[in-house]
Amino acid sequence: MxxxxxxxxxxxxxxxANAHAAAEAxxxxxxxxLALFPEMFLCGYDLARAAALALTADxxxxxxxxxxxxxSGTAVLIGxxxxxxxxxxNALVAIAADGTCVGxxxxxQLFGDEADVFExxxxxxxxxxxxxxxxxxxxxxxxxxxxxxALARAGAEVLxxxxxxxxxxxxxxxxxxxxxxxxxxxxxxxxxxxxxxxxLRFVGGSRAIGPDGTVVADAGPDGELLLxxxxxxxxxxxxxxxxxxxxxxxxxxxxxxPLAALPSEVARNAQEESDI
Length: 276
Prior knowledge:
Strands 5-4-3-2-1-14 form a 6-stranded mixed β-sheet. It has a 6-stranded mixed β-sheet with strand order 6-7-8-9-12-13, covered by helices on one side. By secondary structure, it is an alpha/beta fold. It contains 7 helices and 14 strands. It has helices at residues 15-28, 47-50, 63-72, 145-153, 170-184, 243-246, 264-275, and strands at residues 2-7, 34-36, 75-84, 87-95, 101-106, 127-129, 132-138, 158-163, 188-192, 194-197, 200-203, 207-209, 215-218, 225-230. The radius of gyration is 20 Å and the shape is globular.
C-alpha cells in the first residue's frame, strides 16, 4: 500500500483553509492509495474550541477533500471534532477513493482534558479503504497494545495512527509506533502534526513501519512534509514470530499468591527482602 503521510500544521479554527490544504496535498500525490492527516486536522487541536468547531462526518466542510479524493482516486482518513447529536467525538473521517464518506473511527482512549470535551468511543472499527482492511487508531489509542491487537484479530491488514502528539511525548510515540507494528506483525502508517497551538508544541515524527518494526520512511520531527511511503501488506516471512498465529488462548491467571508461582528459592529471597 502506498500512503501519503501529511505532516502538516493546520490553521487553528479555520475549517475551510485546512480542508483546502488537505485537498491540495491529495492532488499533489495522486498515485497514493491512501492519504492520512493528523488527529483533529480540520479544526486544529484547541480543546477550548473543539465543540464549537465540530461537524458531522459527511458535512459540507469536507467537500473539498471528498472532491480531491474522487479526482485522484485516493482514499482518505482525516481528523475532525465530530458532532454526534448532543455529544462530540474525536474522530477520523473515512473517505473512499470515489469521494464518498464511508464512516468514521472514534478515539477510545481520551488523553488528559479531552475527557471534558469528547465522548469516548465504546468500540473500534476496521474500515474498507483502497481495497484493504484498515485498522485506525487515534494518538493515545496507540499507546495501549490491546487496541492494535484487537484490530489485528478483527482482520486489519494495516494499522494507521493519526496523532496530535506534543512535547514531551515524542519518544513515547517513536517507540509505540514501532512496537504496535511488531506486536502484530502488521505494517503501520503513523502521521503526526507539527507547529504550535494552544500553548502546545507538536513534534512530528510521521513514519511508515514494516511488520518487523523497521522504520521504512521517516519525516523527522521538524517542519511540514508530505511523506509518500509504501509498505507491503503482509506479516513478514518468518512464521516463527507470527504472534497472532501463536497466541495461546488457553492460558489464564492462577488464583494464588504471586510468590507461590515462583521457584522456591526465588520466592524465599523475595519474601526475605519484603521482611526487611
